[in-house]
Amino acid sequence: MGAGRTVPRPRPGMSVLETKDSGLAAVARVRDALALDAARVVEESRGFSCWPHAHAMRIGARPPRPDGAAVVSVETALLSGVEPGGSLYARLARRNAHEPGLSALRLDAERGEISLRAAVVTRPGDDGAAARRLAHAALLQIGEVLLAADELAVELPGSTLLVGSAPGGCPWPVVEQAQAAAAYSAGAPARAGQVLSAFARLASLSPAPWLRATPAAHGLDAELPCRAASSSGGPAAEAALLRISASQPHPRLGAGLVVALLAPPSLEPEPARAAATAALLNDAESREWTGVDQLGAWCVHPALGLAHVGFVPALAVEDSTAEALAWQAGTRARWATAFAAQVRHARARVAAEPHQ
Questions:
Q1: Alpha carbon of 225 to those of 90, 228, 274, 307: distances in Å?
Q2: Is the dihedral of CA 109, 115, 118, 121 positive or negative?
Q3: Dist. CA 39–CA 30, nearest whole Å
Q4: pTM for the full model?
Q5: Would you say 89 and 126 are in contact if contact means Cβ atoms under 8 Å apart?
Q6: Strand 219-225 vs strand 47-50: parallel, antiparallel, or unpaired?
Q7: What are the φ/ψ torsions at residue 259 (nearest 5 degrees)?
Q8: Burial annotation 96-109 (CB, 10 A radius, 16+ → b, else e)
C-alpha cells in the first residue's frame, strides 16, 4: 500500500456505469490509490470495505443527485460503547483541533460509536479533483486511525475497540502509524512552490466568496457572510472569519494549506456548549447534504473557539485547491449558521416542555 502514490485516472477496465457515475468513479480512484490486496476487500453496494489493519475502512458513494453530484466517503469505525456527554465532547473537540488534517473524529450518538471520516462531493466533469482529495484522505486515515484509537481507548476505558476479522481470517498486516505521514513530509519540500502558487491565486479571485479580504502575517483573513443574500434575518455582524495560510507547516506532514473557518459568536452564544455543538456539526455534515467536501473537522480551538479547521498536505495541493476550499468555506458558513439555529430552537423547545 503506497502512501503518496499518485491517484491514477479511471482504470482501463472500469465499466461504462462507473465512468458516468462520478461517485462510483471516485470509489474506483480511491481503490487504485490504496493499492489494496484483493484478499482484504469485501465488495458492497456502491463501494467496498477493506482491512488495512484490524479496523475496517469503508469507502462508499451515495446515489447521485439529479444534477449528478454524489457524496463519497472514507470512514473507519474506532470505538463503540461510548456515552455522549460533556467530557466526551471536550475530548473530541480538543483532538480535532490538535490534529488538523483531512479526516474528522465523528461521534454517532445514536449508535454510541466514534469513527474517523472524510468525504467529498463529486460532480460529472470535475476532472476527478475531489476524488484525488479523498484518496489522500484515505491514505492518511490508515495511520491516523491507529493513533486515534489507541489514545481514545485509554481516555475512554469503558469503550470497546471496533476491531474485527479480515476476509478469510488473513493475518493483520503490519502498519506503521507514521509511514504515511513520513511519506507526505518527505514529499512536501518539492511541492512547496505548488502550495504557494495555489495560495497566490486567491489574491485575484473574482468573484470571491468573501465580503472583504485582508493580507495577514500568516496568509489571508477574509470575512464570509453567514446568511444568504436573500435572507431577511441576517445583520451585517453575521460574518465568519476565514483564515488561510501556506506558511504554517504541519508538525508531521510538513508544508501545506491551513484552512480555518472561525464561527461568529452568534453561531453558539454559550461557550460551555461549544464542544457539543462541534460534535453535532461534524455528525450533521456526515448526514445532511451540504454541497461541500467534508475535509477537516469542527472543533474548539484553544485560541480561536468554535471553528472548522483542516490541513491539506503539499502532496494533495493542486492549482485550484485553495480556491475550491475558499468557496466551500463560504457555503459551510451559511449551512452551519442555519443548522445551529435549528439546534437552538430545538433546545429551547425541550427546555420549555413541562417536566414529569
A1: 28, 7, 20, 15
A2: negative
A3: 17
A4: 0.89
A5: no
A6: unpaired
A7: -125, 115
A8: bbebbbbbbbbbbe
- Inter-residue contact 115 to 79 (CB < 8 Å): no
The 3-state secondary structure of 5-65, one letter per residue: CCCCCCCCCCCHHHHHCHHHHHHHHHHHHHCCCHHHEEEECCEEEECCCCCCEEEEECCCC
In this structure, are residues 217 and 285 in contact, taking their beta carbons and an 8 Å threshold?
no
Whether the Cβ atoms of residue 100 and residue 258 lie closer than 8 Å to each other: yes
Task: Report cis status (omega within 30 of 0) of the bond before 207.
Answer: yes
d(CA 147, CA 53): 12
Q: What is the band of 349 on the pLDDT scale with cuts at 50, 70, 90?
A: confident
CA dist., res. 88 & res. 83, Å (int): 8
CB-based burial label for 129 (10 Å; 0-12, 13-18, 19+): middle
* C-alpha–C-alpha distance, residues 95 and 205, integer Å: 33
Check pLDDT > 70 for residue 18. Answer: no
Measure the CA–CA gap between 348 and 134, rounded to whole angstroms.
38
* Contact call for residues 93 and 275 (beta carbons, < 8 A): yes
**Domain parsing of the chain, residue ranges:** 16-164+172-352
- Tell me the residue type at 22: S
SS3 state at 125: coil
Q: 474485527: which residue's cell?
A: 164
pLDDT score of 309 more than 50? yes
pLDDT value at residue 125:
86
